[in-house]
Amino acid sequence: MHTHVNGITIAYSDRGAGLPIVFLHAFPLNRTMWEAQEYALSSQFRIITIDLRGHGESDAPLWRYTLDQSAHDVRALLDHLAIQQAMFVGLSMGGYILFAFYRKYPTRVKGLILADTRAQADTEEGKEGRFQMAQTAYKKGPAAIADIMIPKLLSPATVQTKPDLVQQVRAMIEGNQISGIAGDLMAMAERPDSVPLLSQITCPTQIIVGELDQATPPSDAKFMAEKIPGARLAIIPGAAHLANLEQPDTFSRIVSSFASDLAMNAKS
Ligand code: MLT
To answer: In this structure, which of 100, 104, 131, 159 has its CB flanked by the most CB atoms within 10 Å?
Structure first.
């Protein structure tokens, strides 16, 4: 499905009924990374997955990108779908966007799952790495970005033993336009520090991390879990950064259990 928000076309999927759960994908992927969760959860919940601005079937305008703007796109889509409040799942960049979303629209958030993400802003070295990656995208195209990103996203065992999954991730990355890749890199480099926000998050929150995640390691997840009042933490064995793709059943079970508790508390 497609809709027009904030001057661009945004693609999304909307399946099932019940508590709405909105899934925000990682950089530089698209909404199809949530297929296993959509399949596992849409018999119980209303599952909405979005191609964020710059990704998949959504427009990737050649202009300035910010994570606030992506949060604004998500809010506009919720308005379009007449959803006042939802539970959100954001993985990595999706989590960064959830911090921006929560800062602006806290009343729209019923519960948060922050997966394989971090609250800290980029270091100077991290920003320089983003700049270099944008130059690589511009000069060599998305296939070169896939070569760089795949070993950061998946565990060595996954890379060696699951060629179909590696190919799926590669196809998602190669399907992006350079404007979207470079735009995201600039947006992530400019994102503010969300550490001060953590203690102000008042909705139920679940943190998830792959035990082998090197991009946003378990230490970052533990830090968020300590700072967000009442947050739960789940560490998924045998998964790296894309925990939902490497251990889809475990990831879906955690989401389902958290969402069931939220739905039950809303009734009681
Ligand atoms: C992601 O998976 O979204 C990226 O690894 C996030 C980042 O580069 O900081």
So the answer is: 100
